[in-house]
Amino acid sequence: MSDVVILGSGLGGMSAAYEIKAALGADHLVTVVGEGRQFSFTPSNPWVGIGWRQPADVQLDAASALARHDIAFIDSPASAVRPADNLVQLKDGRELKYDYLVITTGPRLAFDEIPGLGPVDGHTQSVCTTPHATAAWQAYQEFLKNPGPVVVGAAQGASCFGPAYEFALILDTDLRRRQLRDRVPMTFVTSEPYIGHMGLGGIGDSKGLLERQLRQRHIKWICNARIDKVEDAAMHVTEVDAHGQPLEQHALPFRYSMVIPAFTGVAAVRGIEGLVNPRGFVLIDRHQRNPGFRNVFSAGVCVAIPPVEATPVPTGAPKTGFMIESMVSTLAANIKADIEGRPATAEATWNAVCLADMGDSGAAFVALPQIPPRNVTWAREGKWVHLAKVAFEKYFMRKIRTGNTTPVYEKYVMKALGIARIRPGTGDE
């Protein structure tokens, strides 16, 4: 019997728990270590921030859902990982031994890297977590009483640009519905070298598509932007040229602002030689396995993936959505193989499928694989994307509630579209 411990109960952790338990069966123990009992569907947080969803709409009790599949849940996050001892220390003082460790913690939000950034000790809002998005909605309601300039964007080092674009565009939609848009000048600030770069060097004509949307909605933008500091009602930004040299200084007034920060690894793993890189992201090989500690696997935003390309202002590569599911299926197959004495050969495709809501429309991006060069890349827009994202939210919440992470109809639809989780010939898809 093997004991598998999973750190994190978000998209990656919950999916990993179900897939690993299904792969290994009742003879092996699977334990999820979370921080709070609530699972949150992170992609819906921009809607929560505008008041289009309530937290209860996008959350469910993780412990109860896992228990129905004989998966243990511990409501106390890890305080330290000791991979040389096969041990996890919890914040409540307990210690967990493991045969296999799966790290799916998500990131630490590095608001502290920019003075004045963030919803706790700073002056900007966030939609990175559901509690942050709830606070953003509360601040937005106050803003509506006295509307004025808005700044939305993604800071230097950010690796998740989609929610910033989504928030700007659905905010525009909401303000137009309220007949307040004419009182709200909007600026989009991003570390990307151009609109639609997305940390991926673009996806299809993402540049033209998103520039057109911003232009039609009268949203100005500043690319190659480094946020220097944020004050109570002004954001100070340095715009740099293609060589990273200062080009122009901007002092952007705002009454409301939402900015996606850079990420780092969580405190429990930072600084462990051989496990993580200097930013605290978990080092993995093509099998989602740590090269130094062979019984440690990882998936999601917490893994170390180098930037797709050098940019004048640092940008990271996104590690979310279908890419997480690809990683999870791969590590589940490889843990099973290792337990059975077979080589761990499964490799993730890292295919990217993104549905970005624009309030009254939407954009769909597909990159196969996510990192260039690609076999397939395209971007499409239309009202159907908005409807598809609404449907996907309900569908994914049901998957987490029932524990069926790969329904038969999803498996065959994805296969018909040529979108696989694991590279052909390396493991079960």
UniProtKB/TrEMBL annotation:
Keyword Oxidoreductase included in the entry's annotation: yes
GO molecular function ontology, one term from the record: nucleotide binding
Domain of life where this protein originates: Bacteria
Signal peptide: none
The protein's Enzyme Commission number: 1.8.5.4
Cofactor(s) demanded: FAD
Record-linked Pfam families: Pyr_redox_2 (PF07992)
Gene Ontology biological process: aerobic electron transport chain
Function of the molecule: Catalyzes the oxidation of hydrogen sulfide, with the help of a quinone. Consecutive reaction cycles lead to the accumulation of a polysulfide product on the active site Cys residues; these products are released when they exceed a critical length, typically as cyclooctasulfur.
Protein family (similarity comment): Belongs to the SQRD family.
Protein name: Sulfide-quinone reductase
Species this chain originates from: Rhodanobacter denitrificans
